[in-house]
Amino acid sequence: MENRDRRKTDFSNTKPRQHFTKPKPDPKEVVFGIRAVIETIKAGNEIDKLLIQRELGNSPLIAELLQVAQEHNVPISRVPSQKLDSITRKNHQGAICFISAIRYAALHNVLSSIFEKGEVPLLLILDRITDVRNFGAIARTAECAGVHAIVIPSRGAAQITSDAIKTSSGALNFLPVCREENLKDTLTYLQQSGVRVIACTEKAEHNLYTADFSVPSAILLGSEEDGISQDLIKKADQLASIPMSGNIASLNVSVAAGVVIYEAVRQRVNIR
């Protein structure tokens, strides 16, 4: 759900906003050094992302790193050296990777398993949700409500760290998370598999209570800042909004997720 505050606020009488430094990643979740990163990937560790210094040339070792990363479907980002230096002051050699706190599931395996059990799929697709605590809170609600899996993009999503697991109250230990390279292609795959995609956005003409969640469904929620990507909105089978009557006219995305998920639960409870 898009999180936009439409109010015009007067800050003239407010105290200066405090500035907080971004917490450094847990050292256990970070591996640096080209050879160390290569061996970490080869060992089968689940990698959230790989950062490679933009200024590095294509040496044989870098070429090997890129090849190994591609073979294991590791998301790669080329970044300036300052980015790497902000993560560690040690000799990173231009390469840092983040080990995921969970193992990602294959979407086709998850979907096949749901159908084989005779259950009606209920999936949650998160388009560029970047706040770790929002992600953890959403996962907690989703697991409690019986959502079968969360789908995220391989780039532009919150890093799943121990902090995310803590915020989810351990829900991420039980709830499958599927990381997909291209969400647009993922929507197509789900639709071809008989799953209806319902995009939750304030741009919708109809509210979520008009949507039918009793059928195989995938709930699509957008980023905290600019909502669902336009190309994904166009792909969705239906747009639905949460009714708003207050002045702010927007909800935190984790709260919005809870509202929509439990409307789906309400409908499914009523048909049992």
TrEMBL record:
GO biological process terms, semicolon-separated: methylation; RNA processing
Q: From the UniProt record, which GO molecular function terms apply?
A: RNA binding; RNA methyltransferase activity
Q: Where is this region: Disordered?
A: 1-27
Keywords (A to Z) from UniProt: Methyltransferase, Transferase
The source's superkingdom equals: Bacteria
- Cite the RNA 2-O ribose methyltransferase substrate binding domain residue spans from the record: 30-105
Report biased composition (Basic and acidic residues) as residue ranges: 1-10
Query: What are its GO cellular component terms?
Result: cytosol
Under InterPro entries, the record lists: Alpha/beta_knot_MTases, Ribosomal_eL30-like_sf, rRNA_MeTrfase_TrmH, SpoU_MeTrfase, SpoU_subst-bd, tRNA_m1G_MTases_N
Query: PANTHER family from the xrefs?
Result: 23S RRNA (GUANOSINE-2'-O-)-METHYLTRANSFERASE RLMB
Q: What is this protein called?
A: 23S rRNA (Guanosine(2251)-2'-O)-methyltransferase RlmB
Its organism's taxonomic lineage begins at:
Bacteria, Pseudomonadati, Bacteroidota, Cytophagia, Cytophagales
